[in-house]
Write a structure and sequence with these properties.
Two copies of one chain form a homodimer.
Chain A (H helix, E strand, L loop, with lengths): L1 E7 L5 H14 L4 E7 L7 H16 L5 E9 L2 H14 L3 E5 L7 H6 L2 E4 L7 H19 L7
Parallel strand pairs in A: 1-2, 1-4, 3-4, 3-5
Chain lengths: 151, 151
């Protein structure tokens, strides 16, 4: 099973980048991981940005299943999230997570997603969402391996 | 209006500490802020730890109103959270946030809280909860000041 995290742009906050890298490193012991950056837009025009970045994301994803992260999506407890990931593990299917850019993603991309997952009702920065997702995936890997979480 | 964040122990992850400090520094332009550490327990006995740390937290808080952070609490969108904080600002009341230790807090402390607030249905580390709270407070300060969020 391979887990892929796809997002436009770079992680801006140095601490979020450090946290993301730390959990991705720890996760390597459990899953085959792939982090993919598509280029972010270079305009402040919100609609143009949404369209442009979402098009690039969809082009990369192709016909694969994917989970989109969005504040208005379905919420899971960490236990429920681990059960969800466990099912993918059992079926040996790959998992692709997509995180939108600064302005989010297009409606078209939302419609194509297999699940819209919410980490919180609150709005987080793009960078912090990436770090939190990596930490939750690490937490899930520890739960599924029956290992205690090491802070 | 003064905002206080009270928690047992120290922030373990260097990146979470860096993120927390960054947002606390930015927040200083908006609110009078106070960060208070009560000492964390030195035992692995979950129940003893819960009791000991919660007793120290309650002793520090005294008769003040406080908001406890817990995954099973009430969820707010960032907009709703800003409206909630705005009401405190209008009434010039102080706000105290309490974050539990590694094992959480006692039922007694939960019962004494004026609100149990959930940042997410997912379980976050103690350190990351602190960083996320600081980022959300900064986001709220920007919303209430009609300023754009600077990533």
């Amino acid at each position: 099973m391979k887990i892929e995290v796809v997002y436009p742009g770079r992680i801006k906050n140095p601490f979020a980048k450090e946290g993301f890298n730390e959990y991705m490193k720890r996760l390597n012991r459990f899953f085959k991981l792939n982090v993919v950056n598509v280029s972010s837009c270079r305009t402040d025009d919100r609609n143009k940005c949404l369209k442009e970045e979402s098009k690039k994301l969809l082009k990369y994803i192709g016909s694969r299943d994917f989970i989109l992260l969005d504040a208005n999506g379905k919420e899971f407890s960490t236990k429920e999230f681990s059960q969800f990931i466990g099912k993918y593990l059992d079926s040996a299917r790959d998992l692709t997570f997509v995180i939108g850019g600064v302005y989010g993603v297009s409606d078209e991309l939302k419609k194509c997603s297999n699940l819209i997952l919410s980490l919180s009702r609150m709005t987080f920065t793009h960078s912090m969402t990436l770090m939190i997702l990596a930490e939750q995936l690490y937490r899930v890997a520890k739960i599924l391996s029956n290992q205690p979480y090491d802070h």
